[in-house]
Write a structure and sequence with these properties.
Four copies of one chain form a homotetramer. The first copy, chain A, is α/β, with parallel strands linked by helices. Chain A has five helices and ten strands. Chain A has one domain: Aminopeptidase, CATH 3.40.630. Chain A has a six-stranded mixed beta sheet, with helices on both faces. In chain A, strands 5-6 form a two-stranded antiparallel sheet. Chains A, B, C, D: Removes 5-oxoproline from various penultimate amino acid residues except L-proline.
Chain lengths: 216, 216, 216, 216
């Protein structure tokens, strides 16, 4: 039975909630299979992220990992294509740390591609009536950071597993009262999107394993 | 018992559905009171609108009228403040008619203000977690046209009644596969917004009537 | 010889300059005819505007009046179609005054249409390579306020004269360093746009006068 | 004397001109030193780009290379940070070729970072009143493609040289008459921006060489 690890972020930037953690938690609580879903809330903290992520890796031994975060201002679900080797958030993280143009890993490659089936996930969401697209930049904040660290950890520790990152829009309530109108999505829709992404990733993994078995 | 008339538009511009009519119909079908809700689908046709609107006026004798339409590209519910005396849609209506800088009514005033409680409606939606705002332009297409005709009809035929116009965003599915990401809202959320607007308008009307009675 | 009055606003909202006044002043300083151009800087002050506007009216006896203001976030020149009878700025003016849903004039009509040749101005700017459009809302701040007061003053005091309002984008330098990218336009382009608007208005006025003479 | 190579693209997508080539050509024609500027127009053709780029490399032996392209919809100058190893344009190039999720180079790394002084270029433009920012995605079209090929060519053929990519907005005239307002910039401003980027890159290269000499 496959194990899925989902992560979301804690709130930041003065917001009271983070729709990514709200969704990931709801997916876990309502998951009826196949496989098992674990959900972990990550701190918006460049220097504290790794410990939480690697602890979850050891504890759950995941086959599929989908990290998620908020992309305020986006109107749709953004399935990220690539994580880049830079920290340059522009604003301090929740611990007050503000790196400028620093590498994620001094000795790491310039970038890692997602190993999730990014186009099939977008297509699956579209079938379900949820607007989504492949995004070519996860930014240079903690979202990109955890994405890069995840892909490196998968490459080094769990090469059979697949993983990647998905950005979600503001939740409906976060768009209430904003000075300029903000695109948003309901919690229910975001949750359904993440669940569909997990299902699609799982099917992709199983197909790959079937193919591999067939080849022997 | 108060009577509420809701209108939505038929599809236009190549879209398969119009979220305004979808929502208005759903509000009617699920309405449990107070009062009675009637829903009418209007054609996107400058020259055919009046007959349908006035027919509904005669048939239902409404106390509250909320006309609704799609504002593609909007991220929130827009409660319109004012209808202006001009037809200048820029693109032909569904009947192929394209007026340019023509008045709605040759002998009408430059504009009519909505008589709905526009700020209380926005506040009520916000309480319910739905992003909304007062908008100062309903455009110069059939939305503004029906809004102007409605306000004139109310002023002349049913001065005790109140009415106005609400623009809704694309439905979720209409944002799927668009070249540029489009803000959107789920059908469920739009429907809840229109129902809350109707409820708020009704309460406002009753307060006014109570006050009027109290004064006699 | 025709007299043209141009107005721009003083800075507000923490900005150091207002591109509308910068442009209007530059048009005056570089104007080589036909006619005479006067430029007046208006305060962002609902209660102080009238005195300055009416003083300019008396002093210059203008035949054409174009009031201008900043529409931060706009990407093009917006030639306004209509001024509405409401003050509802959402933020206080420079004097700290914050009216909410108040009329501009208790006894005034709901709206006044611009008497400038709004479509010909847009076409003239397009010919010159400057993006422009007709806008159907000048907002509910001091821009709309002065526009409404101007149209009323023209109707009552100078019925042969024409006037209206033009919104301009941020100047280039105001978009430097903003958190989210802001559309902007160079001072030179904005100035050229206002000069072309004035020229087009003047030609329109002269055509009308010629026609009127021809009719006698 | 340092040699600078600037590239811009030919028009695509039905546009009559490409502001990147317009600017690059104008920089070359008005350059008064230091160094020599060469300008090359590249085809919007994945399979034809390399020959033109490498031919320019051989002919001009550049010390600084700045490739430029149009990012329609951008409001400011985008100094790109990273080129990624993927071709996925979504629409066919000018030769009708439409790769889907293909690598730029089968055996290349996932990405290359720009070796231009990207933050100093942004700062220099800001000093000059031109809005600019570092961008973390050059897309997956021919812009990213030439950027990736450039960085690989520099790494392999001219390791002492520096290079990168700059995206420019629509030119003013390209925003005229568009259905939705488009941010744009005047040709003069875009040209000044590219000239300042070249100057800043040259100074950065010289500082680096001075430092290297000082170390011996």
């Amino acid at each position: 039975m496959a194990t899925i690890l989902l992560t979301g972020f804690e709130p930041f930037g003065g917001e009271e909630a983070n729709p990514s953690w709200n969704a990931v938690r709801a997916v876990r609580d309502s998951w009826s299979g196949p496989g098992t879903v674990h959900a972990v809330e990550l701190p918006v903290d460049f220097r504290g992220l790794d410990a939480v992520l690697l602890d979850a890796f050891e504890r759950y031994q995941p086959d599929v990992v989908i990290c998620t975060g908020l992309a305020g201002g986006n109107a749709d679900i953004a399935v990220e294509r690539i994580a880049i080797n830079v920290k340059d958030p522009g604003v301090p993280d929740n611990a007050g740390y503000l790196p400028v143009d620093e590498p994620v890993d001094e000795d790491g490659p310039a970038a890692y591609f997602s190993t999730l089936p990014i186009k099939p996930i977008v297509a699956r969401l579209a079938e379900d009536g949820i607007p989504a697209r492949v995004s070519d930049s996860a930014g240079t904040y903690t979202c990109n950071y955890v994405f890069y660290r995840l892909m490196r950890a998968l490459a080094e520790l769990r090469p059979h597993a697949i993983g990647g990152f998905v950005h979600v829009p503001y939740e409906l309530a976060q768009a209430v009262g904003s000075v300029r109108p903000r695109p948003s999505m309901s919690h229910e829709t975001i949750t359904r999107a993440i669940a569909l992404a997990a299902t699609t990733a799982l099917e992709s993994l199983e197909q790959r394993l079937d193919t591999a078995v067939g080849l022997t």
